[in-house]
């Protein structure tokens, strides 16, 4: 059955109104043709995204070509008019800030660069790498903050949708960066799992194509390579299993503990980004040799841990632990999607 598909990557405008990077998928004229063209699953992604900014110019927070050395941090982090102690408290656990970060970031936002696995952590562990970060936000959450306000949850990833063209029998890996949102005060425990949804979604939650779920389950094989389960969870898991209690996680899932990106101390001072606030999700995809030529989608989302697991984390983090994110936040589209066009 012939369906329309046009894969269109988009980057939403960075700013106050739009605080995320979005990727949209639309319909085109045909299913995969019999003749494969320019296919090499070793060089992902192979369906090039186009720049899409809703007919608006991409707003840059800083001029990416005019970069000043910061003598306080001894790298190229914007000066922000902060003191040495404030820089240390907010950014002190992060890698040195690369000179070309904004230039590189804008190329990703424009869809010119696509493969985030080629970046090292000195880029994707900086909050400035992600859409929504501004000096105004910095001052709101980390300088002129209120000790009476609490931000309990929030996570994201970049990119949120990746696209690949491959041949039957192909194998490839893909990467996205999972991170805690800015100014979140809690540890968030949740279980990451993958599934084969009936529909691929765009960033507005619209259905863009329907896949054959049974074929996807039969011919598309998924393995999470990174990260491993959180080490604290692993210790808890062993304890609960010895006690005969329900843990509720299988080998194809991962327990993720998202660390807070703001930690207000008892004396009212604030600590910022820990070294593990952003982490890689690396997934291996294997396509069977006899896989029918079609479009497929693998989706990733979260579910709550078991109550036995949550109880143990409450003993560790007390009121700073939250597990309800998957129940409270209902997005119109999955946390992460891998679109696969088998030619």
Number of domains: 1
Q: Please identify the structural class as seen in this structure.
A: alpha+beta
Strand content: 15-25%
Order of helices and strands: HHHHEEEEEEHEHEEEEEHEHE
Number of helices: 8
Q: What is the alpha-carbon Rg in Å? A: 21 Å
Q: Which stretches are poorly predicted, pLDDT < 50 over at least 5 residues?
A: 1-60
Secondary structure: helix percent: 10-25%
Mean pLDDT: 84
| Count of individual beta strands | 14
- The end-to-end distance, rounded to whole angstroms, is 15 Å
Using the alpha-carbon principal axes, give the shape.
globular
Largest sheet at a glance?
Answer: 6 strands, mixed
Describe the structure.
The N terminus is likely disordered. It is globular, with a radius of gyration of 21 Å. Strand 9 and strand 10 form a beta hairpin. It has one domain. The strands form four sheets. Strands 2, 4, 8, 12, 13 and 14 form a six-stranded mixed sheet that branches. Helix content is 19%, strand content 24%. Helix 6 crosses helix 7. By secondary structure, the chain is of the alpha+beta class.
């Amino acid at each position: 059955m012939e369906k329309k598909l046009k894969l269109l990557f988009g980057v939403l405008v960075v700013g106050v109104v739009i605080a995320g990077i979005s990727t949209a998928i639309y319909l085109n004229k045909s299913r995969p043709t019999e003749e494969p063209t320019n296919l090499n699953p070793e060089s992902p992604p192979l369906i090039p995204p186009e720049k899409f900014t809703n007919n608006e110019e991409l707003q840059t927070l800083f001029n990416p070509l005019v970069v000043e050395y910061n003598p306080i941090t001894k790298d190229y982090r914007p000066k922000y008019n902060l003191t040495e102690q404030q820089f240390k408290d907010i950014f002190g656990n992060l890698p040195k800030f690369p000179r070309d970060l904004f230039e590189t970031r804008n190329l990703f936002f424009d869809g010119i660069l696509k493969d985030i696995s080629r970046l090292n952590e000195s880029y994707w562990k900086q909050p400035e790498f992600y859409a929504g970060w501004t000096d105004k936000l910095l001052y709101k959450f980390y300088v002129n903050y209120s000790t009476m306000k609490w931000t309990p949850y929030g996570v994201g990833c970049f990119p949120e949708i990746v696209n690949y063209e491959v041949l039957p029998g192909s194998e490839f890996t893909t990467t996205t960066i999972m991170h805690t949102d800015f100014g979140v005060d809690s540890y968030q425990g949740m279980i990451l799992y993958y599934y084969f949804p009936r529909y691929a979604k765009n960033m507005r939650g619209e259905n863009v194509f329907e896949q054959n779920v049974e074929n996807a389950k039969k011919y598309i094989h998924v393995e999470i390579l990174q990260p491993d389960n959180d080490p604290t969870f692993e210790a808890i898991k062993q304890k609960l299993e010895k006690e005969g209690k329900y843990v509720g996680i299988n080998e194809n899932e991962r327990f993720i503990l998202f660390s807070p990106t703001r930690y207000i101390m008892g004396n009212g001072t604030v600590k910022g980004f820990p070294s593990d606030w952003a982490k890689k999700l690396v997934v291996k995809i294997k396509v069977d040799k006899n896989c029918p030529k079609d479009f497929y989608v693998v989706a990733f989302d979260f579910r709550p841990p078991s109550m036995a697991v949550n109880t143990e984390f409450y003993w560790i983090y007390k009121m700073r632990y939250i597990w309800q994110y998957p129940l409270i936040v209902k997005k119109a589209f999955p946390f992460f999607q891998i679109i696969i066009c088998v030619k």
